Structures are given as structure tokens and as C-alpha cells.
């Protein structure tokens, strides 16, 4: 795991084995052994590598996520509301170092989803794909059409209301 992370980050930085070893103050043979998965690096060695790569130490312990991911329109784990005909599919979970989730949401005509405030600092981003809806923080709701993008603080009570059948939108939730 650490070996692959060192290779990945060295490649991203565009540094040769020799250059990274010199910047980190370690022997080139030591770095070569670490990238080959041999050896047991000390925390000091890892700190030196992270500093030379200008990355947080934690990146040397993270695995790389797949570069591509395809979820067809009929696929995905559906999360349904108990309050209204509101179905969201989580398209992308937030990685540990980022607080962002991406959902595809489908609502039916006349349905209203009243959402309680999310944690302080949460921001919602919406992009309407089809249908028509009214959404936003209480008192600041906007009528949205396909192609419309709306962002608002998600840490206040807010609503989503479908004005047409099968209204679909993309929702991204960010939290600090």
C-alpha cells in the first residue's frame, strides 16, 4: 500500500527516483526498496518523502480510487424518503479527505421534500436535468428548469418540490 502510494505520488510530482531521494535526504537504494515493497520505513522517512513531494503524510497511506466509474441510469442504490416520493441515488461517496457526495434525484409531480438543516457550513449544488422544480432555503426557493444550476446553504431548512412528473436533478452536497 505505501509502496504504491510513493510511486503514485512521485509520478504525479514528475520526479525521478534520484531527485526524490536527494530531496528527502535518503539513499536512492532505500527509496527503490520502498517502492518495490521491501523494507519497513520509519515515520521520519515517510515524513521526509511527504515533505519532498509537498503532500500530506496521509496520502502515503491512501489507496488510489479507480479513475473511472459508470453508473447507468437504471442502476445504483436508491435512498427513498419516508416523507414524499423522493428517491436519491448516491453516485459518488466522498473520499476520506474530502466532504462531498453526489446524488441523482428523481421526484414526482406535486411532491414536496422538506429537509432539515445539514451540519454547519454545508453547501448544496443542484443541476436540473429534466422536469421542473422549486427548491432552496425556506423563503429563497427558486423555480428551476432543465439546465438551471442553483447553489445554496444546506445548513438551513430547505425544500424541493417537483412541478412536473419524473423531475430529475443532480445534487452535490459539500461540507467543511
Automatic annotation (TrEMBL):
<dbReference type="InterPro" id="IPR050807">
    <property type="entry name" value="TransReg_Diox_bact_type"/>
</dbReference>
<feature type="domain" description="HTH cro/C1-type">
    <location>
        <begin position="6"/>
        <end position="60"/>
    </location>
</feature>
<dbReference type="InterPro" id="IPR001387">
    <property type="entry name" value="Cro/C1-type_HTH"/>
</dbReference>
<protein>
    <submittedName>
        <fullName>XRE family transcriptional regulator</fullName>
    </submittedName>
</protein>
<dbReference type="InterPro" id="IPR014710">
    <property type="entry name" value="RmlC-like_jellyroll"/>
</dbReference>
<dbReference type="InterPro" id="IPR011051">
    <property type="entry name" value="RmlC_Cupin_sf"/>
</dbReference>
<keyword id="KW-0238">DNA-binding</keyword>
<dbReference type="Pfam" id="PF01381">
    <property type="entry name" value="HTH_3"/>
</dbReference>
<dbReference type="InterPro" id="IPR010982">
    <property type="entry name" value="Lambda_DNA-bd_dom_sf"/>
</dbReference>
Amino acid at each position: 500500500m505505501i509502496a504504491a502510494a510513493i510511486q503514485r505520488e512521485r509520478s504525479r510530482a514528475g520526479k525521478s527516483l534520484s531527485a526524490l531521494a536527494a530531496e528527502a535526504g535518503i539513499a536512492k537504494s532505500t527509496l527503490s526498496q520502498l517502492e518495490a515493497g521491501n523494507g519497513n520505513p520509519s515515520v521520519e522517512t515517510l515524513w521526509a518523502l511527504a515533505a519532498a513531494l509537498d503532500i500530506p503524510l496521509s496520502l502515503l497511506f491512501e489507496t488510489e480510487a479507480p479513475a473511472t466509474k459508470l453508473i447507468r441510469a437504471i442502476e445504483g442504490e436508491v435512498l427513498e424518503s419516508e416523507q414524499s416520493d423522493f428517491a436519491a441515488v448516491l453516485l459518488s461517496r466522498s473520499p476520506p479527505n474530502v466532504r462531498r457526495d453526489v446524488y441523482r434525484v428523481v421526484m414526482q409531480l406535486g411532491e414536496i421534500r422538506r429537509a432539515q438543516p445539514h451540519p454547519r457550513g454545508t453547501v448544496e449544488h443542484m443541476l436540473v436535468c429534466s422536469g421542473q422544480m422549486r427548491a432552496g432555503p425556506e423563503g429563497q426557493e427558486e423555480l428551476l428548469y432543465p439546465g438551471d444550476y442553483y447553489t445554496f446553504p444546506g445548513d438551513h431548512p430547505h425544500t424541493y418540490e417537483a412541478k412536473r412528473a419524473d423531475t430529475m436533478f443532480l445534487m452535490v452536497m459539500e461540507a467543511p
